[in-house]
Amino acid sequence: MNKNIDISNVILKTQRMILRPWKDTDLNDFYEYAKVDGVGQLAGWTPHKNIEESKVILDIFIEGKKTFAIEYQNKVIGSLGIECYNEENYPKFNSFQGREIGYVLSKDFWGQDIMPEAVKAVIQYLFEVENLDFILVCHSDRNKQSARVVQKCGFKYIKTIKYDAIENSIHSILYNPSRK
Ligand SMILES: CC(C)(COP(=O)(O)OP(=O)(O)OC[C@H]1O[C@@H](n2cnc3c(N)ncnc32)[C@H](O)[C@@H]1OP(=O)(O)O)[C@@H](O)C(=O)NCCC(=O)NCCS
Fold first, then answer.
1. Is 113 touching ligand 1 by the criterion CB < 6 Å?
2. Which CATH number applies to 12-175: 1.10.357.10, 1.10.630.10, 3.40.630.30, 3.60.15.10?
């Protein structure tokens, strides 16, 4: 089952970045990377056409209290969400607590191991502070970049779900090492 999680007072520090709740003042940074072609499409959304579109999503991030802003060198360069997973897809996990993570990084910063570093910090928080039993992640089968993040963070493949005629969704899981 999904655990209720509220990150509105949570700040995580890694070697190179800070993960913290989104703020109104992040709007320009958000729009700067969300408008770029080829970023959002890999996560299932189209590039933002104007800053008003980014503002709508930013408000959802702030109100939802489940999405970290990734701050690097005093700039927000990505987001990492602690999403609710679809419980119908995982009936075996009904008696365990888990969530699904999702992430996006500004194209300017791809290929520098930034997202794996951020994801590892969130995994540690979810297991050690929130005491989750498992964490899920999924990506389309053409998204090789996300597949590498998943691999680098130690997730194990569990299943493939077809989500349209040509695309599959590849699902992976990580169990809390202290889970009995
Ligand atoms: C997936 C994503 C978060 C990876 O973040 P990252 O910090 O670049 O991760 P890594 O540095 O570990 O790079 C992962 C792989 O991306 C590939 N990659 C690196 N730079 C790249 C570039 N400029 N263009 C295309 N692919 C690139 C490499 O294969 C790399 O694997 P490697 O380290 O074994 O060479 C980022 O690519 C992104 O935001 N993509 C768009 C949104 C998205 O796909 N979100 C996930 C939805 S499930």
1. yes
2. 3.40.630.30
14 lines ligand 1 (CB under 6 A): no
How is residue 110 annotated by DSSP? T
Q: Where are the domains of the chain?
A: 12-175
Q: What tens digit of pLDDT does each residue of 45-86 get? A: 999 999 999 999 999 999 999 999 999 999 999 999 999 999
- Of all atoms in ligand 1, which is nearest to the CA of residue 42? 44
Q: What is the 3-state secondary structure (H, E, C) of 6-62?
A: CCCCCCEECCCCEEEECCHHHHHHHHHHHCCCCCHHHHCCCCCCCHHHHHHHHHHHH
Q: Is the model more confident about 166 or about 78?
A: 78
How does pLDDT run across 107-142, given as a tens digit for each residue? 999 999 999 999 999 999 999 999 999 999 999 999
Nearest CA to ligand 1 atom 16: 145
